[in-house]
């Protein structure tokens, strides 16, 4: 079956994440890049959003999962995001998510985790 790739580049949000004392007290910025390969089950009809996967729904799930509660590890958060996407969007066949902390270190632009999973 053919697929279509939906991608997000640098979603920026504030999240409660980390195990260090200052991370437990305040939110910190995260940047999220994501790619999703989606089954193309029908022909796109330009006037009908229901003929494609509405990427607003994917974005909402990512943002909601990243901001709903404190998470200690980026690894845990990336797993939760991919699990949610696979649970809510059955047409998604492949997911790649990269979550980074841009303020973690002063000597690099960001540090983060990238997770890929397919079904």
Automatic annotation (TrEMBL):
One of its GO terms (molecular function) is dihydroneopterin aldolase activity. Its EC number is 4.1.2.25. One of its GO terms (biological process) is tetrahydrofolate biosynthetic process. It catalyses: 7,8-dihydroneopterin = 6-hydroxymethyl-7,8-dihydropterin + glycolaldehyde. Pathway: Cofactor biosynthesis; tetrahydrofolate biosynthesis; 2-amino-4-hydroxy-6-hydroxymethyl-7,8-dihydropteridine diphosphate from 7,8-dihydroneopterin triphosphate: step 3/4. Keywords: Folate biosynthesis, Lyase. Belongs to the DHNA family. This is 7,8-dihydroneopterin aldolase.
